[in-house]
Amino acid sequence: AGWDTIIITQIMTSVADSGMVARLATKEAWSWTESTLALGYQNKRGVLEYLKAKAIVVLRSLLAFFFTSTVTALIVRMLISSGVVIMFPLLTGLRYLGCSAIDMQILNMSYPWLGLPVERLRAQNKPVTPLIVAHMVRVVVLYSMYEACQLAWGIWLYDKPLPSGLELWIYGIVMIWEYYSMIYLRSAAAIYFLPRFTLVYFIAFHFYLYGTAYGFYPVALLTMFLAMCHSLVFCLTRLEVPASSRLEVSFDQPRALYTALPWTAWSAMLPPSWTLFLPLNSRAQNIYDDPPDNNNNNDTDGPPNGAAAEHQGEDQGRGGGIGG
């Protein structure tokens, strides 16, 4: 990859016009235009043109981050909600083959958003197959759309000569972010800092990507990935573990920050997909947290200050008893 960068850059600058280079052995091709070559001469422009070019780079980087992260979050959500449906026909088939030790109740409890509807259908003597097939079709259709998005947005966002497969590596790194966020991102500090770290690393890589005609992009992407891994490990060891020790995150409160909807829902249901785009608006509190300060509360419907202080003292006493 290093020699490719040197040779392709030399050819591009020597031709100084639109062109294309192909490698017959691997069937790779790199094409460029005059606008691509102009990226290597941004420092020779005027101040206004230079600032305009950098503003466009920031905008394109933010768009790339938005589209890649959102579509990846949706596909991860779909794989969790519907992808596990394959377990139901698989375990059912194993039971028909004689594996009577398999308990379907464990599967229903592990995935209640699928298990409880299956139990309800069976209790009403209705077929379960349409439900299973519907989820399978959903997986096939949405994952096909995800693959199509990689190709389409690769043309829109990365319309310049790049090493083969670089766009797929970018999507793969974003997929790691999303799975990590789903499993490990639970404390308030990690939720606050990690997205900002990853955004900075992502934009820094795209500044180099959009600011050069052809560069050492695999090395830059590897650097971004290693920096991201450092952030993931740091948040896990320095933020998540202490948060779990002080019960900011627990079995009853799996996340410190969450999005609360203003209506009740079936406890076995997953939130709608559009809630992925809602901001976090609530914070969980456990019995060891300090009670809210009601002294500055101007709500006239609340108890007097003396009553509020009395209730706070009772709560603190109960908290101390439990802690002891």
From TrEMBL:
Keywords: Membrane, Transmembrane, Transmembrane helix. The chain crosses the membrane at residues 62-88, 166-185, 192-210, 216-236. Residues 293-306 have a biased composition (Low complexity). GO terms for biological process: positive regulation of ERAD pathway; response to endoplasmic reticulum stress. Residues 288-324 are annotated as: Disordered. It comes from the Eukaryota. One of its GO terms (cellular component) is endoplasmic reticulum. This is Uncharacterized protein.
